[in-house]
Amino acid sequence: MIETNPSDCSTQSQVITLRIKAIYISSLTVVPTSIFSSINSTVVLACTISLNTGIGPDTSFISHYWYQYSTDISDRSTPLMINGDSKSLVTTLNITSVQLSDAGVYQCRASVDGNDTVVSSTAYVCVKVPVINISFDADLRLGDVKEYDCTLGYNYNKSEVVLSWQELTSGKAYTNPLILTVDQSINSTVYICSLLINKNPANCPYQQVNVSVTVKDTFIKTVMTNIVSLNLSNTYQQLECHIATNTDINTTNTDINTTKSNSIVNVSWYRDNGNENRLVSENEGVSILPIVSITNTSFISTLRFSPITSSTPVSTLGNYTCVAWIGEQSGRSKTSNNVQVMMK
C-alpha cells in the first residue's frame, strides 16, 4: 500500500509462490578407501557429500557422522565445508600419531534433515608396526649367538599383536626375539616372522619378514700332536693334540667340550696296542681333559696319564692318535700322527 494515495484508492497485492526443490544426497565417497599406515604417522580421511542441487551457505540441515567400527567418533571430524560448487560438501577425519588402536573400518554417514535415508561410505585403515629390515645374514661364525627382534623393540601389548617366528622348511615355531646359537645345522635356513594386528580389518595384509642365515664353512685344517713318543714314569704325563680350523669360531658363548653331544669341536682318542684300535675311555690310568681354545682357530685336547704303579695295565701302552671334526661333520675329520706311549 502506498501511504500517500487517497484513502479511497484500492490496495495492490500479489501472491508469490515459492517452490523449494527437494534436496537429497546423490553420492558419498571417502578417500582413500584403504590405507596401510605406519605407527606415529598421520592419516587424513576425506568424506565428500554430493547433492543433487546447489545449496546456500547454511549446511546445518545436513547431518554427518564418522564411525570407527561401531563407535561414533564424529567429534573428531571437521565441520562440513562447501567444496567448489555448492553441490559438494567435505568433512575430514584427521588421525595424528597413529597407534594400533586407530586401526579399523571407518565409515562416513550423512542424511538430510534427519531423514531416515542415510548414505554411507567406508574406508579401511590398516596399521603396521616397525619390523626388522634384515633379509639375509651371511657368514655367521660357529658359536655366535644371534638375536633377531622382529619388531625392533617396539613395545606392544600382546592382546594387540599376534607375532611368531617359524622355520620355513620344518615349520618349527619360535618366540620373539628369535635367538639362535650358530652351528652348521642352521646353515641356509630361512626364518619367517609373521605379525597380525588384531584390530586391523580382515582385508588388511599381514606383515611378514624373511631372514635367511648362512654359516661360514668351518672345518678342521690340521691335527698334530706335540710329541711323537712318550715314556710313562712315576709322575703325571700329558699328550696334547693341537687342532687348527680354517676359520675362526666364537668360543665366548659356547663351551668347547668333548663331553657334549652338540660340541662345535669334537675330538676322539684312539689307542692301538697291537690287538685292535680302540677308542680311549677315561680308565686304565688315562683321563681326557676338556678341549681348551688357545685362539679362535686353535684348540688343544689333552690326554693325562697317571703315574705308573704296579697296577698300571700293559694295555695303556701303544700308539695313540687323535681324530678331530667340526659339529656333525665326522666325514670331514682329520687324524693326527701316531704317538708311541711306552713304559720305562
UniProtKB/TrEMBL annotation:
Residues 26-120, 239-340 form the Ig-like domain. SMART domains: IG. InterPro entries: Ig-like_dom (IPR007110), Ig-like_dom_sf (IPR036179), Ig-like_fold (IPR013783), Ig_sub (IPR003599). SUPFAM superfamilies: Immunoglobulin. This is Ig-like domain-containing protein. The lineage of its organism: Eukaryota, Metazoa, Porifera, Demospongiae, Heteroscleromorpha.
